[in-house]
Amino acid sequence: QVQLVESGGGLVQAGGSLRLSCAASGRTFTMYRMGWFRQAPGKEREFVAGISWNRGDTIYSDSVKGRFTISKDNAKNTVYLQMNSLEPEETAIYYCAADTVVIGGYNYWGQGTQVAVSS
To answer: For position 102, what pLDDT does the model report?
Structure first.
């Protein structure tokens, strides 16, 4: 089992920045990759960014590429999402996820943290 706890959400003006954190605990040695997803009101959850836990390879959705940065601190079992130049349409609940099974997608999820971007 892996437990994930997000923090760092809040209210920010358009063009502003926020840094989200996700602390993992439990069987963290089984994690293959971690990622960030978001779900806006009335929309489906979408992938934002991912990072491989050992090598640190990163991947981003096209909509955030160049503005968001995912990073990790293995010693702290924590993954971060630095979000710059935020836009009102990026208001959503942001979820952290961990993948321990390689095939089949992310199998552990945090409770989410709210990000609100005002215009």
So the answer is: 74
For the beta carbon of residue 70, count every other beta carbon within 10 angstroms.
Answer: 23
Q: What is the 3-state secondary structure (H, E, C) of the chain?
A: CEEEEEECCEEEECCCCEEEEEEEEECHHHCCEEEEEEECCCCCCEEEEEEECCCCCEEECCCCCCCEEEEEEHHHCEEEEEECCCCHHHCEEEEEEEECCCCCCCCEECCCEEEEEEC
The share of the chain scoring above pLDDT 70, in percent, equals: 100
CA distance 30 to 53: 10
Separation of alpha carbons 23 and 80, rounded Å: 9
Return the number of other C-beta atoms located less than 10 Å from residue 16's C-beta.
14
| Angle at alpha carbon of residue 85, lines to 39 and 99, rounded to 5° | 40
Closest CA to 99 of 29, 33, 50, 38: 33
